[in-house]
């Protein structure tokens, strides 16, 4: 089996999802820096791998794959990690529900505040856009707070899964972005649990942004 190639800069939250998954599983991989500040994702050789010009992309024994959450699911299945992505249809659906929520609802909420305050993107410089985004972002995190108050441990239940990789990185982003945040004790305790995982510590995935 060849060594997995992961294309994308580590400062990308989506690349970190894949790297953390690799660390959690124990996959041998090499990471190549592509994206802002590094090799251009608009270069023909990169677009030949992902026509969207976005990171991450993996080059595996099975072929080329892009879309971060899809890559994480593929790797967990490829290496038989039923704990990270259950084979049971119902248990798997509970994990994938939160992964899809992160990619759609949560990402849509934080975009204005994060891009405006952290990335300094002029397209999101309007204070009203940032205010609305911060409000919506906090609202999504309150949904997570209620869930964690019920599960008591991790997003999809008692055990750590892929859902916690994608949600955990999103919580890190929320905690570090300079917005007013409500005090969410279950979310705070959850992130402390996440940070104690050896795979998280090896990758230093609490970096920001």
Automatic annotation (TrEMBL):
Its EC number is 2.5.1.18. Gene3D superfamilies: 1.20.1050.10, Glutaredoxin. CDD domains: GST_N_2. InterPro entries: Glutathione-S-Trfase_C-like, Glutathione-S-Trfase_C_sf, Glutathione_S-Trfase, Glutathione_S-Trfase_N, GST_C, Thioredoxin-like_sf. Keywords: Transferase. It is an enzyme of class 2 (transferase). GO terms for molecular function: glutathione transferase activity. PANTHER family: DISULFIDE-BOND OXIDOREDUCTASE YFCG, GLUTATHIONE S-TRANSFERASE-RELATED. This is Glutathione S-transferase. It comes from Rhizobium viscosum.
